[in-house]
Design a protein that fits this description.
With 234 residues, this protein is mostly helical. The protein is built from 12 helices and 3 strands. Strands 1-2-3 form a 3-stranded antiparallel sheet, covered by helices on one side.
Amino acid sequence: MTGMQIAPYQDFAKAKLGFEFNDIQLLVTALTHRSYVNEHKKSVSEHNERLEFLGDAVLELIVTDYLFHNFSEPEGILTSWRAALVRTESIGEAGAKLGYEPLVRMSRGEKNGSDRARQQILANAFEAVTGAIYLERGYDDAAKFIHKHIISKLDGILESGSWRDAKSHLQEVAQHEDNQTPQYRLMDEVGPDHDKIFTLGVYVGSKLMGKGSGTSKQIAQQAAAAAALKKYGK
């Protein structure tokens, strides 16, 4: 890459991360999707999946370390809190707020992909940038980055109760409120086999309480349960 091509990445590092990269190629690679390499095989050879692998581990360790040292809840609850903090939606949102999307190098097809696909790309990029920060600056600076952009969400997650498994929570609520067990029914599925979107409804008795969509039936069920909980005011 030329100096002009690299400049936006260094500017981003200074403005959003608070430091310049000595090895700016680390950041460029962290923001390079596999599809871009496939389209530019003659000029680009590295994508961000190895950095994503590293960053995923660093992210989970930093979040786990924080929860372990600051809370006395049992392992099961801490695991649920951690899962809520590091799930795709949370880290994808963090990547979007940081302004990754204009800098992520991806194929033309991926740029025109679904919102869910772009969210996944941003989540993967967030993990990859975490890995790049860890290699460039070490554990302490990676921890500062994770505290600022991920762990800072914990109070909101605890206040809203969104860390709880929506299906399990809905079952408790429906049994308490209506003495009924929720039932999930497939309402629609669209798209090719490799990229289907499922829509499921959750019924309590004969009443449709919520609908949800996702790339798997499990994700759609969780979304439907979350919608039903809102209807219950939970």
